[in-house]
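Quick log. Single chain, no ligands specified.
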Amino acid sequence: MIGFRFTRHSPMSTAQPLRPRIVGKTKLNLSLVASQYNLPYVQGLVAAVEEEMSTISAGARMNIVWVPGAFEIPLLTKLILSQEKPDVVIALGVLIQGETAHALLVAQSVTTALQNLAVEFSTPIINEVLLLENEEQARVRCLGDEINRGTEAARAAVAVAHAVRETLKPR
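-> predicted structure:
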């Protein structure tokens, strides 16, 4: 197993993706797969995605699927990719590191599975399954206005979905 230790007092990245400048009014088909575990924080991420999408891609079709925990996100993502064929999937979850390696193992497994699905289905998957040290980090990243990972996820989803469309256009 690859070891990982949080570095205490490491500054959080404040870099945010720019709002994508999209030419044309192509509507996006977007799926969110969200964990119910640590629900208040995940609800904050979902709300931020919805708010940002209403600004940058008004009219996007958004389907939200709730799963019990982060470990179930890849399975439901695969089913969605197989059946609905969305332009992009956003995976949302919050794992808070405890005294054991459980949260780390779940985070690693989910990340690997989501990346494999993105490649297998040639569909972007924005991974915002966050592995955090404590609830304070969760509040800042999921409920805050200044740096909300849900806002970042929405921006990345729109940008990469349009990049894929442009790449696949006949030349």
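Helices lie at 39-56, 73-83, 102-121, 135-143, 149-168.
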